[in-house]
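1st attempt posting a full record on here, be nice pls
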Amino acid sequence: MKVSFLLIILIIMAIPILMSFTNARIEKQKYRVIKKEKEFEIRFYPPAIFATTRSVAKSYRELGNTGFRKIAGYIFGNNETSAKIAMTAPVHMDINEKGSSMSFVMPSEYTLDKLPRPTDARVELHESPAVYIAAIEFSGYANDQKIKQYKDQLSQILNKKGIKTIGNPTYLGYNAPYELIGRKNEVVIAIEWKE
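the predicted structure (as tokens):
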């Protein structure tokens, strides 16, 4: 009985270490921090290749359920060469009334012309423009309430500082659903910025 109890404790202690190791191996989208403040930061994102699916979803859960399967299918081999493409972080989710989208950033080793074409017409490949963004981070599991809370908070900060925004805020998720500890989420929005 003592051995099985000790084994359970060791497994529980090992889970966060294994999850952080898994997350550390996933390629993250590249950016450069321009300015860091207590509540938010301003970043420069160079162009990146995205696989995107569009949706009429109006909530985080609805977009996550429908969008993830389509794009995950593409990177797991639902493409013209049946190639497996590595997962990256973060997942981008633009949730708004006019039409939502979910995007995966493609690994940096690929160019747009080197990626296999999706066999699902609902998945499109495109290059994002270089952009300056403002970002605010939060932890735990995301939901519509939290995303709205941080969208509003970021909007208030930027208004107060006189920083002009462009387009809709986007949610960025960095962790797989099974990662319980050290979860990272962000709300970002494009801004007008000059260096």
